[in-house]
């Protein structure tokens, strides 16, 4: 008998989990950059040439998938340099610090937290500010997300999740599941309340870290 597919959660911090569909999709997000040296036979892969043998000249502006940017980035050899996407630049960090709840994160980038954490792999003097903004944005939006998930029982939630990034949507779904499970238990339709899969996965990670 085949077992049901069990979703694998995204990685944490600087590392991706390539068993996670979310991380695979996130790694395809593009970064603006520049070729610091000629890149042989990469023009076609980056949509800048007609043939597989075409090269990218030094100084060319690029739009590079995150996975490739991480592979090419080398501070010693200076193969490529990467720039911050606009949502992580100072102007947008100011908007987030004023009121993070007004920002449509899904429109600006569906993997805001994961992608922003990956940017810390690149040498950038603004990394501390980026990390702080990501953390504070999550903290300031978290309560509203969970409050919304607990106050929308048997309702259309599409408008509530439309502005959330994928991590926030997962948290919203977890809150909804907890609410639905509680309502079923309260009505006598369930024998027990089980722990959220997010909590179970977190516990497994902690035990794995301790064993290591």
**Per DSSP, what share of the residues sits in E-state strands of 2 or more residues?**
5-15%
Which CATH class of the largest domain applies here? Mainly Alpha
Question: What Rg, in angstroms, do the CA atoms define?
Answer: 21 Å
Number of helices: 9
Could you name the CATH topology of the largest domain?
A: Methane Monooxygenase Hydroxylase, Chain G, domain 1
| Portion in helices | 40-55%
In what order do the strands lie side by side in the largest sheet? Answer: 2-1-3
Oligomer: single chain
User: Would you count the extended β strands for me?
Assistant: 3
Uncertain stretches of 5 or more adjacent residues: none
Quick one: overall form? elongated
Using the 3D structure, state the CATH architecture of the largest domain: Up-down Bundle
Termini distance?
33 Å
Q: What number of domains?
A: 2
Main pleated sheet: 3 strands, antiparallel
